[in-house]
């Protein structure tokens, strides 16, 4: 009898120390202590040998022991069910967390933000507009005549339900919306995505990004345009970069010019990027055509303005020497990871 009481104390110590990590271990515990051939049953069987006058006392001890084992089993079971694993009660907060990989800014966004910040310092505000445009804002208001090749079905994505809607082919449509609602002085840049129906290759894509700028006020001259763009190039590419303007044609500016910078790769000596000329084209620009100003009720005898537009992909290609336009939209982390830490 005393021996059994001692055994119960030893078992209690064992049971208190027992821990289970899996539902299988909990089941082992149940079989060992609470099963039909388990320890609790065996000790209960000892009741037969207990003298009558001590049966009550002994029965109490055995009941307590049984309850003790059942409570332990219940707590093991609750903490080892599949659902319980991972609830807050079971999380060891001192363990190191699962690593979360920090993303990186997309190279096009890095460059877009740099362009925006340079022009903001010159007092340009940022304007944005819809990517689905109507014919007027994309073409008509911008002085593109009906037979202009840019209107060709080959080059523009028209919306099939309503052919007078299209995916904007340039962010000039945003300039149109600004001139529609604001009076000079106007000084905005328009960053955004634009669409052209081009075959996708290393050098062309069906969508790309532009930043266009517009400055309209009294006495705005071509000298202002040049000074603004010189400042931009020096801030973007450094003081050593040379700049040249070439006469060009755009329907919405007159006169128009394309701007080249000296090749950053070969420093003007000639390489594949600059097609061995030492120069690379980075943007188009010009004085806003009087017809465009008049389209918005801005008096072209009183006001003048300049406009420019550049491709963000082009600037990014030059800055980071990206050779294939398709890399920008493939979501390949091997490419994107190379911009880690750039903000
Ligand atoms: Zn070169």
Give a description of the structure:
- The chain is an alpha+beta fold and 343 residues long.
- It has two domains: 2-90; 107-339, BirA Bifunctional Protein, domain 2, CATH 3.30.930.
- It has eleven helices and nine strands.
- Strands 1-4-5-9-8-7-6 form a seven-stranded mixed β-sheet, with helices on both faces. Strands 2-3 form a two-stranded antiparallel sheet.
- β6 (243-250) and β7 form a beta hairpin.
- α1 runs parallel beside α4, α2 packs antiparallel against α4 (52-80) and α5 packs across α10 (312-320).
- The longest helix is centred in the N-terminal third of the chain and has 29 residues, at 52-80.
- It is rod-shaped, with a radius of gyration of 39 Å.
- It binds zinc ion.
- Zinc ion is lined by residues 263, 265-266, 270-271, 273-274.
Summarize, please.
The chain has helices at 2-17, 23-34, 39-45, 52-80, 107-121, 135-138, 172-181, 222-237, 290-295, 312-320, 333-336, and strands at 125-126, 132-134, 165-167, 186-195, 207-217, 243-250, 253-262, 279-288, 304-311. With 343 residues, the chain is of the alpha+beta class.
């Amino acid at each position: 009898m005393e021996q059994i009481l001692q055994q119960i104390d030893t078992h209690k110590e064992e049971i208190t120390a027992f821990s289970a990590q899996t539902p299988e271990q909990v089941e082992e515990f149940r079989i060992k202590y609470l099963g039909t051939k388990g320890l609790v049953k065996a000790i209960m069987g000892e009741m037969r040998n207990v003298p009558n006058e001590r049966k009550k006392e002994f029965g109490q001890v055995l009941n307590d022991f049984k309850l003790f084992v059942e409570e332990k089993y219940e707590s093991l079971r609750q903490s080892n069910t599949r659902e319980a694993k991972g609830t807050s009660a079971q999380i060891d907060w001192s363990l190191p967390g699962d690593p979360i990989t920090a993303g990186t800014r997309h190279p096009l966004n890095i460059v877009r933000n740099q362009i925006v910040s340079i022009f903001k310092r010159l007092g340009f505000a940022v304007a944005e507009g819809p990517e689905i445009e109507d014919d007027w804002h994309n073409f008509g208001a911008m002085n593109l005549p009906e037979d202009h090749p840019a209107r060709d079905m080959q080059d523009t994505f028209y919306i099939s339900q309503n052919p007078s809607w299209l995916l904007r082919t340039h962010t000039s449509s945003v300039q149109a919306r600004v001139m529609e609602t604001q009076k000079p002085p106007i000084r905005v840049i328009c960053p955004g995505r634009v669409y052209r129906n081009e075959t996708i290759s290393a050098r062309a894509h069906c969508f790309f990004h532009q930043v266009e700028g517009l400055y309209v006020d009294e006495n705005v001259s071509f000298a202002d345009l040049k000074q603004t763009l010189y400042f931009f190039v020096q801030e973007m590419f450094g003081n050593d970069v040379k700049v040249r303007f070439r006469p060009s044609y755009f329907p919405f500016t007159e006169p128009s010019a394309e701007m080249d910078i000296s090749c950053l790769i070969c420093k003007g000596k000639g390489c594949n990027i600059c097609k061995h000329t030492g120069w690379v084209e980075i943007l188009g620009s010009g004085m806003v055509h009087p017809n465009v100003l008049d389209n918005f009720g801005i008096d072209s005898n009183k006001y003048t303005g300049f406009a420019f537009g550049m491709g963000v992909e082009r600037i990014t290609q030059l800055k980071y020497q990206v050779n294939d336009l398709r890399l920008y939209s493939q979501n390949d982390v091997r490419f994107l990871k190379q911009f880690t830490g750039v903000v």
